[in-house]
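pinging the channel bc i need a second pair of eyes. not urgent but kinda urgent?? the chain im working w is below, pasted from the shared doc
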Amino acid sequence: MGLILSYAASVAAFLKRELQGGPAARRRLPEGTARGNRTVLAGLLLLPSLSACGSLGQATSAAAVPAAPNDSALSAAAVSPAAPFVAGPNDLLYVANAGNNSITVYHTQASGDTAPIATIAGSKTGLDGPGQLSEDASGDLYVANEGLSGSSPSAILVFKHGANGNVAPIRVITGPLTGLSTYVYAATVDPTSGEIFAVAQVASGGGGVSKFIRFSPNATGNAAPLATSQNTDSARELAFDSSGKHIINASTGCCENSATFGVYTYEKQFPNGANLSPIYTIDSFYTAGIADDPTTKTYLASTGGTPFGGEGIFRFDEDTVGHGATQGGSSHFSPHVVSVIKSDTCGGQLALGYERNIYVAHSTQDCPTDAVYVYEHDASGNATPLRILTGSATKLDQPTGIYEGK
């Protein structure tokens, strides 16, 4: 009985933190940054058959992001996707830092206390709680900007390839028509179509509902999306599977009496207003990051930041279904788990590199130090990292989003 009560208390404490603080409880805002009148309710999440978990109350007016230059003059041809992006040996490593609202850029082989070769930061950038990173075929960088402090609105920010310093984004997707007006949990670019996918909290009837939102490749400003689902699960990170037809959602849970976390796979070309139902589901499995490995038709799922103690970085077949052990009892997965990096129990978002090396974001919200850990593509068990990027010179500050790209 004591064990059950202890377990229940840990679940309640964790979900209370998610509901009351959400990502803000785990992402330190820069010193002197005011939250304004915005209430951080990023922990209000929704499972497919559930209603909103709480109330957002009165929406506040969004603070302005610096206007993108010649935003209205962008044509569809100027930003339409070219060939799908293919990783290469000259790639760079991009890291979104939620602690100091910056994006730091490194050579992929960087290790130890190595300074970034470029840093995007400053008042012109509009960065405020940056999260998942991705890029289009031109190498332009897309940022899921959660807008945690209210100093800038929730948005998808697009920076020109090679951006450095206090620079304005070339495009900003935000506004009431976009559906991104509350919190952008995750966003990524489809490498084949160039369409932009996001999971955001949308104000609905006085409450907050998480929804999948799909934009055209040339979306900018207050652009209406191609489609918005009725509901989905909140997301920490999104990935596309090897078929190119499905999108995988690394999800946290919903509501203070629920310990449901998981990995949910959906058809990516959903119609507007769709009531999404996952194709494959892993329930009761807290997932902080996701990265698909098309070569092996598997995906990696990290479990850092859970009150139950992270179990490592799991590798699953793309069609895996089952449940974890976070609600008690034993876990069950079908097919069985391919492998687990048991030595990395606090990692967050994930990325795969040109050589299929595994990049793992370590934030001091859940880990002893801010760092990027890099493992071999087939690492398992008590694996030792190939290298670790950490130290004051790196300018890492609660690294959240991580991506290898042009």
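so The chain is about 5% helix and 30% strand. and Confidence is low (pLDDT under 50) at residues 1-85, 254-259. — does that match what u expected or am i reading it wrong
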